[in-house]
Amino acid sequence: MQIGFVGLGRMGANMVERLLRGGHEVIVYNRSPERTHLVMQKGALGAFSLAELATRLATPRVVWLMVPAGEATETSLRELAAVLAKGDLVVDGGNSNFEDSRRRAGTLDDQGIAFVDAGTSGGIWGLENGYCLMVGGRDEAVQRLAPALTTLAPPDGWLHCGPAGSGHYAKMIHNGIEYGLMQAYAEGFELLRAGPFAFDVSRLAGLWNRGSVIRSWLLELAERALARDPNLSSIEGYVADSGEGRWTIEQALRTAVPTPVLAQAVFARFASRQSESFAAKLLSALRQEFGGHPVRTTPVSRKDS
């Protein structure tokens, strides 16, 4: 099928290449023209504005967005809506909030433009392994998109989850679970290193992937990272988050569903970014006040004294 593709970052460019390998005709656009030229070298056709993209696509058009959630997606959809027409289809494959996707589906529907939200998992490995796709939208829109979904995904790797918003809701929960799994591995390996035995942690990770109940792709990735640098000495312990974990916890609060593991995993990421924790300082101060326990003073405090 013919498809327009907007957003050629690490995920987007690889998805375009996988579509090209599958025999699809892909017309690409990126705000940075350098990325467009790079992907054109893989066999894609290039456009250098959304208006040009629209004119190069045969009607009814299909355009896949792969841009950051939030304002970038909002702006791109608004600009696309101005150059598309009734009967066209827009896919949001980024990590948008599901409530935004429901709203956007309604707005585009008023113009006669179909909307599909596709929660996309697979990272930089998706080019070779395929992308797991959680898809929301009307039946006819999803079926129209099915040839591209089948190419992008591994066998049985995409699912029509329900109406608009359901794909991004499923991806949000997926990422919340991912936070918890990653945190469990991280804490377990730290405890291994703190114990009385000099484990080869990379080999142990490899062993656990041979039939144990905690085997997983994440553990395979841990094995790779630890084999390169067993002490992870080249990596700072600062862990970012892109929003989905927070949204998962917010949804848990709204629906009164207890998710202590997922919540603590999000908070652990926040804690990783603190070079100095005021809360920890206050804990130390309180122990000194009520029990006379010693405190460690900062270098500035020692100098001033």
How would you describe this protein?
The chain is α/β, with parallel strands linked by helices and 305 residues long. It has 14 helices and eight strands. The chain has helices spanning 10-21, 33-40, 50-56, 71-83, 98-110, 126-129, 139-152, 166-194, 201-208, 217-228, 244-255, 260-272, 278-291, 299-304; strands spanning 2-6, 25-29, 45-46, 62-65, 89-92, 114-121, 132-136, 158-162. Strands 3-2-1-4-5-6-7-8 form an eight-stranded mixed β-sheet, sandwiched between helices. The radius of gyration is 24 Å and the shape is elongated.
Order of neighbouring strands in the sheet with most strands: 3-2-1-4-5-6-7-8
Biggest sheet architecture = 8 strands, mixed
Topology as H/E string? EHEHEHEHEHEHEHEHHHHHHH
- How many individual helices? 14
Strands, count: 8
Radius of gyration: 24 Å
Helix content: 40-55%
Nearest-integer average pLDDT: 94
Beta-strand content estimate: 5-15%
Q: Roughly how many Å apart are the termini? A: 74 Å
Enumerate the spans where pLDDT stays under 50 for 5 or more consecutive residues: 301-305
The shape is: elongated
Structural class: alpha/beta
